[in-house]
Amino acid sequence: MPKHSPDKTFNTKSPSLGGGEGEVLFILQHREEDVRIVALQAAKNPDIDSRYVTEQIAGWQKARTKLPAWAAVEGIVYPPQISMEQCSSETTAHYKTATALRWLRFFQPPTLFVDLTGGFGVDHYYLAKAFDNSIYIERQEALCDTARHNFNLLGLQHTEVVCGDSTALLPTLPHASLVYADPARRDTHGARTYAISDCTPDVCALLPTILKQCDILLLKLSPMLDWHQAVAELNSAAEATVVREVHIVATGNECKELLLVLSRQAEGSMMQVTCVNDGQTFSFTPEDTVADPHTGGEILADGYLYEPNAAIMKAGCFAEICRCYKLNAIAPNSHLFTGSNRIEDFPGRMFGIRAVTSMNKQELRAVLQGVTQANITVRNFPMTVAELRKRLKIKDGGDKYIFATTSADKRHLLLVCDKIG
Predict the structure, then answer these.
(1) One-character DSSP codes across 99-149
(2) Is 353 in a helix, a strand, or coil?
(3) d(CA 46, CA 166)
(4) Which tens digits make up the pLDDT trace of 318-333?
(5) Contact predicate 201/167, CB 8 Å
(6) Three-class SS state of 168
């Protein structure tokens, strides 16, 4: 594929990234150390760029857990902290690639991938490996220089890095199999933004043009967004039903991103929502969802308590959870579920219920006799964890778990449990 010819508003120049021999040696000698101490040491050395070496050491230390394959490559250059915070992890980047390829098998063999919001380039690197050619677009020249350098070290040879505004460049691009966008969630003052229209670029405004330019659009949004609202806004912007899949992606039981698949193809198909937390996956079709979870029922002292993972909590698919796993919700707003069967593949945590008690002093004394330490969780309960812990005179930790909640018939209950698995 011939190189794209940017107009004069786009700069593909690659100046030096800095980091002379002295800086490289300093980084290798001190990158295992506390960054704050390293910064003080570097500031005393007039031959060392203190800001640069501190940034690189902080970036490498974060990459060891977030991007281990990159951290293992000597010479990778890391961006400022804000870009390291916002970039995807290897885990979520691999998930995006698998999601894109599953969709693209319905089209011609994937040829061109366009990334409208290049950033540090983690998502671009993993997605681009599945294509014959790719174009990385980024407004910040420093990030473009970093991407060129790192892609070369990582062996990604078929990517064109273009420094410029993707909004202006978009209409000039050839048709792409896949377009990816991760709009910047910071305003001009550095404050966080969440609404799609407040991010840069404004994907809602660009959506009709983007969907003409590609088979599939993969869109990464803030995990703070309500997925129902995001779907409604995007379909409205396209003046058609174009959102095909919603993925709520969590790692370590923390929601990391909202990932949407959009296409003008596959009209008439029902949208699917998938909740992912590490190895746990749960999918449902909103059109088939029943209105409310099944609530009530006796909480058995020899039964099981189920706590959904963060992705399920974000999706709010509690009725689907009840229906799929034949569980009862303790109450509509408790988001805790009980059942008599042990469910090994439940997308969340499973506990064995050992005792159930009200807040009656005599009951509490009998049930909690000998319990001096426990992990306490409060759900739909009139006391905080700290207040309840003080009331019960129980220290934090140990192998017991106490869930404080309110039942469907408005009783305040404590469920004393053992964690399973």
Answers:
(1) HHHHHHTTSSPP-EEEES--TTSHHHHHHHTTSSEEEEEES-HHHHHHHHH
(2) strand
(3) 40
(4) 999 999 999 999 998 8
(5) yes
(6) helix
Number of H helices, E strands in the chain: 15, 16
Look up residue 124 and give its two tokens. 């671009």
Is residue 13's pLDDT more than 60?
no
Q: Return the percentage of the chain with pLDDT > 90, whole number.
A: 76
CA–CA gap between residue 48 and residue 57 (Å, rounded): 13
Percentage of the chain surpassing pLDDT 70?
A: 91
Give the DSSP H or E segment for 25.
helix 21-30
d(CA 413, CA 404): 6
The DSSP code sequence of 34-68 is: -HHHHHHHHHT-TTS-HHHHHHHHHHHHHHHHH-H
CB 153 within 8 A of CB 146: no
Q: What are phi and psi of 210, to 5 degrees?
A: -60, -45
**Cα three-residue angle 100-106-112, rounded to 5 degrees:** 55
Give the angle 265-271-192 at the CA atoms, nearest 5°: 100
Rounded-to-integer distance, Cα 303 and Cα 100, Å: 41
pLDDT tens digits, residue range 364-391? 999 999 999 999 999 999 999 999 999 9
Q: Taking a C-beta distance cutoff of 8 angstroms, is the pair 374, 355 a contact?
A: no
Sequence-ordered list of residues with C-beta below 8 angstroms from that of 125, at least 6 positions apart, any chain: 93, 150, 151, 154, 156
> Whole-angstrom Cα distance, residue 72 to residue 121?
17
10 Å CB burial of residue 60 (0-12, 13-18, 19+) is buried
Work out the widest C-alpha separation in the chain, in whole angstroms.
80
Looking at 15-24, 136-145, 148-157, which range is the least confident one? 15-24
Burial class (CB in 10 A: 0-12, 13-18, 19+), 288: exposed
Question: How far is Cα 137 from Cα 131, in angstroms, rounded to an integer?
Answer: 16
Residue 368: both structure tokens together: 């909690």
For residues 120 and 134, what is the distance between their CA atoms, to the nearest angstrom? 15
Cα separation, 245 vs 42, in Å, equals: 48
pLDDT in tens, 240-286: 999 999 999 999 999 999 999 999 987 767 899 999 999 899 999 98
Mean model confidence pLDDT for the chain: 90
